[in-house]
Design goal:
- With 429 residues, the chain is mainly alpha-helical.
- The chain has a domain at 56-204 and 294-405: Orthogonal Bundle (ABC transporter involved in vitamin B12 uptake, BtuC), CATH 1.10.3470.
- It has helices at residues 29-35, 38-50, 57-73, 80-105, 113-130, 135-160, 164-183, 199-202, 208-236, 243-265, 272-290, 292-302, 304-309, 314-340, 352-362, 375-393, 398-425; strands spanning 188-190, 204-205, 270-271, 342-344.
- It is globular.
């Protein structure tokens, strides 16, 4: 019995029937970058900058420049006491800004958060201080007040179709009037610094192990999360980061975390307000990036009609997002009331609303929707807080704060617009 001759092995790039070449599959550029080492990463970084994928680079560079300028003008700017005071100052408005990030991801705006924050502080003060209600219960009711206010805005926006700008502008006026009604003729209600709410902004963990322990937990959690993500991606057969890259990223975070912990321990230790703010950021970061609900928010911000056709309940997501914004506004208002030790008729007014919105935008959340992170609230508040704090140390007039902050906000929006246009030109949107 004869055996048929075996056909020669055909080249993967050749078509056996036509004899023509078939283009070979191109390797994933991310894999090529990682194979090239540092040179590959540098080339990829330059490519991202040219194509408009700026990420957090502008705000980080801007923050470093701001710190260097104020440090040169007044060496006490980077002192342990000033860093500690700055971390407490940014917590209240930063919490409000977290809610703004969610709304901006939808491509919408919420102008009521300042008034809602003042209302929450007034509700707490009247219930707990004036009427003797247990503070924990009063705190929950104040937060629920903010959630209810946000849900009302979401209902009129999602179900009735009233533009979010108009709904929340009406809310700004209505909730401010209700706050004045709740406070009544008393005007101002003082909050005991030793009370449950008072300790939120005035308690410090003086043991050095607290700050260093938090830094260690943060670094370990980040490394574990990156390692787990890599294992999952490898199992799925998709590109993953090499261990060396994870080690470098973890090392950078470790330096930042432990230097911050060292500075805080040189003054009074770890502020409870900062710990609460960071915990909220972590929780909402996981909610946005690791859950189906978070992906639905990004989907709505990218293309509402496409999201609707994909089966997403657009109305429910919109209402829930505005409810989150209202809850975080209430939380931030309570933190601010804790810091100043009172709920008064001026709460939620002034530049609070503008700072909360500006922080989210300056930190990197797009005004056009679909792009941003909750960590934008932290980065943006560090920029705004640093400008206010630095000018105060220099004894500059308050109008300079508004002018410089406005200029920084405009620069952030311009960068965002140019970035989107560049990405569109490069075919990345």
């Amino acid at each position: 019995m004869t055996t048929e001759p075996t056909a020669p092995h055909e080249d993967a790039g050749a078509d056996s029937s036509q004899g023509t070449k078939v283009p070979a599959a191109q390797a994933d550029p991310r894999l090529l970058v990682r194979e090239q080492g540092l040179a590959g990463y540098w080339s990829d970084f330059k490519r991202r900058m040219r194509s408009g994928e700026l990420g957090s680079v502008p705000v980080v560079v801007g923050l470093i420049v701001i710190w260097l300028i104020f440090w040169r003008l007044d060496s006490s700017f980077l002192s342990a006491q000033n860093i500690s005071n700055l971390s407490v100052y940014i917590a209240g408005t930063g919490l409000i800004s977290v809610g703004i990030v969610f709304v901006l991801l939808l491509g919408e705006i919420d102008l009521s958060v300042g008034s809602v924050s003042g209302l929450a502080g007034a509700v707490f003060a009247v219930l707990a201080v004036s009427n003797g209600m247990p503070e924990a219960l009063a705190l929950v009711l104040a937060l629920l007040t903010g959630a209810a206010a946000g849900a009302v805005h979401g209902f009129f926006f999602a179900r009735i179709g009233v533009p979010a700008f108009v709904v929340t502008l009406a809310g700004l006026l209505f909730w401010n009037g209700l706050m004045l009604q709740v406070l009544g003729t008393r005007g101002t209600i003082n909050i005991d610094y030793q009370s449950f709410l008072g300790t939120m902004s005035n308690h410090y963990f003086t043991d050095v192990a607290a700050a260093y322990g938090l830094a260690l937990v943060a670094v370990a959690a980040y490394f574990a999360a990156q390692w787990t993500e890599n294992r999952r991606r490898e199992a799925a057969g998709v590109p993953s980061r090499p261990l060396s890259e994870i080690a470098v990223r973890t090392g950078v975070l470790a330096v930042l975390a432990f230097v911050t912990a060292y500075m805080l321990n040189q003054y009074r230790g770890l502020p409870l307000a900062l710990l609460i703010f960071l915990a909220v950021l972590v929780v909402f970061d996981v909610l946005l990036r690791r859950t189906t609900y978070g992906r639905r928010i990004f989907a709505l911000g990218g293309n509402t009609e496409a999201a609707r056709r994909a089966g997403i309940n657009v109305e429910a997501v919109r209402i829930s997002v505005f409810a989150i914004a209202g809850t975080m506004a209430a939380f931030g208002g309570l933190m601010i009331a804790s810091r100043i030790g009172a709920a008064n008729q001026g709460a939620g007014s002034g530049n609070l609303l503008m700072e909360a919105i500006a922080a989210a935008v300056i930190g990197g959340t797009s005004l056009f929707g679909g792009r941003g992170k909750v960590w934008s609230a932290l980065l943006g508040m560090l920029v705004i807080g640093s400008i206010s704090n630095g000018l105060a140390l220099l004894g500059s007039p308050s109008h300079l704060v508004y002018m410089i902050t406005g200029g920084v906000l405009l620069a952030a929006v311009v960068i965002d617009s140019v970035s989107r246009r560049t990405q569109k030109t490069a075919g990345r949107t």
